[in-house]
Amino acid sequence: MTASETTAPETRPRTAARTFPPDFLWGTATAAYQIEGAAREGGRTPSIWDTFSHTPGKVFEGHTGDVAVDHYHRYPEDVRLMSELGLGAYRFSVSWPRVQPTGRGPAVQKGLDFYRRLVDELLAAGVAPALTLYHWDLPQELEDAGGWPERATAERFAEYAGLVADALGDRVKLWTTLNEPWCSAFLGYGSGVHAPGRTDPVAALRAAHHLNLGHGLTVQALRAALPGDGLVAVSLNLHEVRPLTPSAEDLDAARRIDAVGNRIWLGPMLEGAYPQDLFVDTAHLTDWSFVHDGDTATIHRPLDRLALNYYTPTVVSHVPKGAQKPQDDGHGSSEHSPWPGADQVAFHRAPGDRTAMGWPVDPSALYDLLIRTAARYPALPLVVSENGAAYEDEIGPDGTVHDPERAAYIHAHLDAVHRAIADGVDVRGYFLWSLLDNFEWAYGYAKRFGAVHVDHDTLQRTPKSSALWYAAVARTGELHAPGSA
Ligand code: IFM
Questions:
Q1: From residue 200, how far is each of 56, 102, 358 by CA, in Å?
Q2: Does 309 contact ligand 1 (Cβ within 6 A)?
Q3: Which structural domain, as residue segments, surrounds residue 285?
Q4: Is the residue at 138 inside a domain?
């Protein structure tokens, strides 16, 4: 399908409720560096995001995660909020340098204890914990030793995962190895807009392979440590790539982006091989000799869930050599590409509504992504592990936050999930990004994705109107239009 086409128009009346399966997981999601704060407490040492955010010019107005939204101290209040809203699940990540400050050796008890307390509080409140092991906060010491471009980091990751699984495996059922390795590899080592801020396409491809390897080694470590009913997943921000036109050139641009955006993960993780066209596209950069014999077998481990993060589609076209690319391509200010091997691809933003990130709103692409992924991996249940939107939320004079655009965004995307389920896709859950307004990486606190508003001066939490609506959907399993019930 091209960007100018859309999926068949929805014919059911917008107000008719859709019922989700009774055991569907309804949750919200966060990540450690974005919410915890307490950056120097309990033996925690800097991660690459501490270093990056403290480097002038890297993050909007010099914001850092030092305090974030102080979830480290306020987690009982945050769990209470979830439980009052009636949300059945919560996806959070573990801060690697809080548990294993140098990225090597034994775990720090205080770090593990924090997560044990958090999980116990969740379980007592009837909220199922879903744990992500890596959401971008590599211990700085490991980056100093070479970071993800080095093979040893994959081995360290699996050792750390084993420590966390030994400590929490009896309490947490759903485990995710990596969150959005595309961002770790290509924004962290390619465009440099994320930590550690390197701009080396070869390092980015090496990082991608070692993230894959770390995933495979970690699946093995989790299988060894978790009880038999433990579920293992990976969260990928798969790109729903649409060619701008049906021309052969634009179709090839879409193929390239699909290779380095999607199949670079799906190939080794789920099919046991890297796509050959990726090797061809990047042959001028590397011979991929960092992939050793046996690596793809290590990476290719059975998973229980494939978790997808979706926000907006990716629209691409071919650019002839020397031609100007569109100004507003959605890749921020970096002059370095996060897409190795795709220099002649231009990115476009679809017309229509956009969120405060400038991301076009297009739920049809979530539907297409679910259908396409399920068609390729029919035996693997899917979870939407992130979806949501930033808007310019403000506290009104009556102390409430009215955010109808966010409710409309979530409604439209849940409707797409429901359609996919009705069309036979096995989707087991939906996690709204995010529980709380938080540290939005290079945008600092300037972007608000939360269901719950956070006053960044007082750290006061106020559920937004969209949270109340989403909670009602989650409690009943019935998707009704915002404002209709
Ligand atoms: O805030 C991020 C999250 O950490 C990873 N997925 C996308 C979100 C919004 O940009």
A1: 20, 25, 26
A2: yes
A3: 25-479
A4: yes
